[in-house]
Design a protein that fits this description.
295 residues, mainly alpha, globular
Amino acid sequence: MEKAVVQSAYREAVRSFEQALSALGHLPETRDTRAQAIDLRLAQRVALRPLGDFGRVLACLREAEAFAETLDDPCRLSQVSVFLSVHFHNMGVYDQAIVTAQRALALATAGGEVVLHALANQYLGFAYHSQGDFRRAIDCLGQTAVSLDGAGRRERFGAVFLPAVHSRAWLAWCHAELATFAEGKALGDEGLKIAEAVAHPASLMIASWGIGLLALRQGDLPRALPRLEQAVDICQDADLPFYFPWMAWALGAAYTLAERVADAVSPLTQAMEQAAALEAGWYQVPCHLSLVLLR
């Protein structure tokens, strides 16, 4: 199952997790089986998210949360809180995303859980970014990047992307919004090197997107276009429909600014259609931008 997720075979992974959970349900209910039930649901959530199946993601997380509270397991409850923050961010409920990330951060701090502390900071940073608080986002995401230095750079820790790469991609975006381009470029390039060393498709996609966004914001179209084209290509090849609208609107914007309007129509139309089909507040931005650029 883990191998399928690493190789971006998400639909296959979902089926495998369903079979494992079904088999677990036939075993006697003990502390160990409850712990396994939590871990399987958290892992299944990783496979469901790239497919945009938000209803099942939330169901998995709420079930895992109930098991963690019953077991009085702060570590696993922190894990669940981290992923609930991700879910609320995807739904566009940023205040709730911040509250659950802060709960995860408090639990991880109390338990001395370095990795969970880094992940909680990352998702707290995402929520702050989405509220336009770029400096606070940089502080949180920067802590994630520092915490996961060394061997931690190459680990996914149950996430879709390598957090060391994901945090740097968003840091590049934050710096782009503040026009601190040199800092953003250094972080974005560093994230790309990490992703290339591991050869993880989803991480390569998000790294390329972050670099492309920064270059686009800077007006450097010769640098932005190949990176954003790479991000869209990987998104389609690796079967990551959840992320396609964000990859596509950025590429469409780059094509439009490069006066390649005909090339922009297809990715922007697809982004708009796919964003409208997904019930997620996070997609209001790419959907709106696609409509504006198509006019």
